[in-house]
Design brief:
431 residues, alpha/beta, seven-stranded mixed sheet, six-stranded mixed sheet, 16 helices, 16% strand, binds NADPH dihydro-nicotinamide-adenine-dinucleotide phosphate, binds 2-oxoglutaric acid, oxidoreductase, NAD(P)-bd_dom_sf, Glu/Leu/Phe/Val/Trp_DH, oxidoreductase activity
Length: 431
């Protein structure tokens, strides 16, 4: 039976990968538990004068390979279980890309769409007040995730600097460029996924013009990726946001949809406003229906647990690129594998974001800033190299791409954990 806990499900992929790599019992035990978890209450004075207390979290899953790294999510469903799972995935993602980081993640249980801009700023500054002793440029570095953005990262950095009484830009990445952000961070998650697609699709003899794509989620990751693959000549036939989706078998006008989305319009208006609007050519669909469309490529780019044992059998795509973290449950993944569907796992596919975050951290610490072209070239090199390695590993060991990605990451994590030793000083004393 499917587990209720996201973290229990996340760890099942680790258990699977452990069967394919020689690794010490100590290292296994080490990797099964988060190093530190913090839960905080954040009191916020609301615009109407009332006081509201929000729950916030920061989990440092592992920092053997370097400071913990990972985004902060603002969403009504944020919980310690979810943040722990996201921090766990960050640990493996940073190892997949060979970044000198461990894994961390944060979140606040809130619907930010219901807050005014000033309430959002007070909440953000309150969160940093509450976790300031737990983070730092050499300890645990924040970044954007669902419903957080560059402006919020700027507030976080500013509050941290005020607490520290000095400038510490490297405590947060994904900042506005004017505050030390990196060129290319805003589009990095999408560009990283695009480079994974460009490496994988030729292996399936899939020229862009003959490849249909459906994308769930039209935020930072999904919307930039939709535009990038549209411009590369793929046929993007369906997109969606939290309110539902739109499907046009002949292909959607993605730049027009992005423009309208930025103007705050709903999915129907998105397509109709100022562009082709012929309902005979396209139809509004639910997020559930989008996942089951007859497309070549499916890209979940919103939230976890979208493909489960309940709908796995209805999935028609031949390839799934996981841009969201954890969109496929463990059991559903097994069913998709049985059906011969290739899944490019989250810990590889969406790693472009943290990779450019690493570049931002390096730039902040060196004081030397790179051009957009330089960032993109470095990102392309890393994403292509690690995708190719995971593909080769999957082929040579006859593994799914997800298990191969975990084995690839485990090889790097194991090396660091085993050479450093565990925290079991008693065992060392005995030896
Ligand atoms: N931002 C980053 O750098 C990275 C993000 N990711 C992952 O990518 C995913 C998306 O993040 P990101 O794009 O940054 O987030 P955003 O907040 O920018 O966008 C989220 C998008 O998902 C949509 N959405 C929300 N709930 C649902 C739902 N139930 N069904 C369908 N769509 C929904 C939102 O709709 P609406 O617009 O209506 O609110 C919005 O379009 C997450 O899993 C995140 O962890 C991974 C790596 C890096
Ligand atoms: O940019 C980062 O540091 C992390 C982004 C993130 O949260 C993720 O990859 O899930």
């Amino acid at each position: 039976m499917e587990s209720q806990s996201l973290f229990v499900g996340a760890r099942q992929n680790l258990d699977l990968a452990l069967k394919h790599i020689a690794i010490s019992e100590d290292a296994i035990e080490h990797l099964k538990h988060p190093k530190a978890s913090l839960q905080v209450s954040i009191p916020v004075r609301m615009d109407d004068g009332s006081l509201q207390v929000f729950q916030g979290y920061r989990v440092r899953y592992d920092d053997t390979r370097g400071p913990a790294k990972g985004g902060v999510r603002y969403h009504p469903q944020v919980s310690l279980d979810e943040v722990t799972s996201l921090a766990f995935w960050m640990t493996f993602k940073c190892a997949v890309l060979d970044l000198p980081f461990g894994g961390g993640k944060g979140g606040i249980t809130v619907n930010p769409k219901q807050l005014s801009r000033l309430e959002l700023e007070r909440l953000t500054r309150g969160y940093i007040d509450a976790i300031a002793d737990f983070i730092g440029p050499d300890v645990d570095i924040l970044a954007p995730d669902v419903y957080t953005n560059a402006t919020i990262m700027g507030w976080m950095m500013d509050r941290y600097n005020i607490i520290q009484r000095k400038s510490c830009p490297a405590v947060v990445t994904g900042k506005p460029i004017a505050l030390g952000g990196s060129a290319g961070r805003e589009t990095a998650t999408a560009m990283g996924a695009f480079f994974v697609m460009q490496t994988i699709l030729p292996k399936f003899d899939r020229p862009p013009a003959e490849t249909t794509v459906a994308i769930q989620g039209f935020g930072n990751a999904g919307s930039f990726l939709a535009e990038q693959i549209y411009r590369a000549g793929y046929r993007v036939v369906a997109v969606s946001d939290s309110k539902g989706g739109i499907y046009a078998p002949a292909g959607l006008d993605i730049p027009a949809i992005r423009q309208n989305k930025e103007a705050g319009r709903g999915m129907e208006a998105l397509y109709c406003h100022g562009t082709v609007c012929n309902m005979a050519d396209h139809q509004l669909i639910t997020n559930e229906a989008l996942l089951e469309l007859p497309v070549d490529v499916l890209i979940p780019a919103a939230l976890e647990n979208q493909i489960t044992p309940e709908n796995a059998d209805q999935i028609q795509a031949k390839l799934i690129f996981e841009v969201a973290n954890g969109p496929i449950t463990f059991e559903a993944d097994r069913l998709l594998n049985q059906k011969g569907i290739y899944v490019l796992p989250d810990i590889l596919t969406n790693a472009g974001g943290v990779t450019v975050s690493y570049f931002e951290w390096v730039q902040n610490r060196s004081g030397l800033y790179w051009s957009a072209a330089e960032v993109e070239q470095r990102l392309a090199e890393r994403m292509t190299r690690e995708t190719e390695r995971i593909w080769q590993l999957a082929q040579s060991l006859d593994l799914s791409l997800r298990t191969a990605a975990y084995v690839h990451a485990l090889d790097r994590l194991r090396a660091a954990i085993e050479v450093k030793g565990t925290r079991d000083y008693y065992a060392q004393a005995k030896a």
